[in-house]
Amino acid sequence: MWAFHSTIDGLLELTPAVANLQVEAIRVPDGGDVLREGSEIDLSVGPLPGGPRQHFTSVITEREELADEAYFVDEMETGPMATWRHTHRFRRVGDRTQLIDHVEYESGYGDLVDRALQPGFALAFAYRHRKTREKLDGDET
C-alpha cells in the first residue's frame, strides 16, 4: 500500500474521472519515481465541462517510514484553497494496513464555505479508499 501511494500513478488511479485530473509537471529531488520530501507536483482539474481548469502545486513536505507505520504530507503551495495540508498515514494492523487520511484546509471564503466543502471531500476520500482496496485486491488493505 505504501508503494502504491508513493508515486504519481497512485494519485491518478485514486482520483475520480469526473475531476479530469492532469499532471502538468513533477519535480522529484532525486529524479526518481517515488514522491519524496521536497517533491513538487503541478496539477490541474477541470470538473466542469467547458469550464476553466483550476491549477495548483502540491509539495511533499514530510515523509517517513518506520517499522509499523509510515506517513507523508502534501501541502498546497499554490491553488484554489487558502490552505491545504493532507496527511496520508499507513499503520500495520496484524497482517493488514490501515489507511488514515487527515486533511486540514481553509477555502479562504469563510467557515460556511469550508463546512459546505466537507461532504464533497468525505465522498472523494471514501472513493479513494474503495479504489485502494480494489487496486490492491486484499493485499495489505
Q: Notable features of this structure?
A:
six-stranded antiparallel sheet; single chain; Alpha-D-Glucose-1,6-Bisphosphate, Chain A, domain 4; 40% strand; alpha+beta
Describe this structure in words.
This is Cyclase/dehydrase. InterPro entries: START-like_dom_sf. The chain is α+β, with helices and mostly antiparallel strands. The chain has one domain: 2-Layer Sandwich (Alpha-D-Glucose-1,6-Bisphosphate, Chain A, domain 4), CATH 3.30.530. 26% of the residues lie in helices and 40% in strands. The model has no long low-confidence stretch (mean pLDDT 91).
Going by CATH, what is the homologous superfamily?
A: START domain
What is the arithmetic mean of pLDDT? 91
Along the chain, the helix and strand elements come as HHEEEEEEH
Number of strands: 6
Q: How many angstroms does the end-to-end distance come to?
A: 7 Å
Number of domains: 1
